[in-house]
Specification:
This protein is an all-alpha fold and 144 residues long. It contains six helices and no strands.
Length: 144
């Protein structure tokens, strides 16, 4: 089910009508934040194509890492259920899971770096302005 949702997400992202409002009208924008932001940047077709390619590559890597984390968690659960818990092995599994989570974080950072290399200076400036505006809207309002 998760793979289908991810596939649909990227089909939507890479759809030819993607730049039109109808392409994602009615879609929960909180679920597709990057697409709704990038849609407003007037991307060229080659930019859209490169972003789609980078997204799919990054997503494949992150999914592979998440699967490995799932395997590690399964090993942890089996080890915890055994009569005698091997604390050294359990410690190694916790360390491995932490390394995998760090790899996911780094993969996301690399993805964002690749997006920045695809966008023009003006598009990056527009993204910065939107980010700043979004942060201002999220700040708690203090009543006098």
């Amino acid at each position: 089910m998760k793979k289908i949702a991810i596939f649909l997400l990227f089909c939507l992202f890479c759809a030819p009508a993607w730049a039109q409002d109808e392409a994602i009208e009615g879609v929960d924008k909180a679920f597709y934040p990057l697409q709704s932001v990038l849609r407003n940047l007037e991307l060229k077709p080659e930019q859209r194509s490169r972003i789609c390619s980078e997204s799919l590559t990054s997503l494949a890597r992150v999914n592979q890492l998440r699967a490995e984390i799932g395997n590690v968690q399964l090993e942890e659960a089996c080890l915890k259920l055994s009569d005698q818990v091997d604390s050294a092995k359990l410690k190694d599994l916790y360390r491995r899971r932490g390394e995998l989570e760090a790899e996911i974080y780094l993969a996301r950072q690399e993805y964002m770096k690749s997006l920045k290399s695809i966008l023009t200076e003006e598009q990056l400036r527009q993204l910065e302005q939107r980010r700043d505006l979004s942060r201002q809207n999220r700040e708690p309002k203090v009543k006098p």
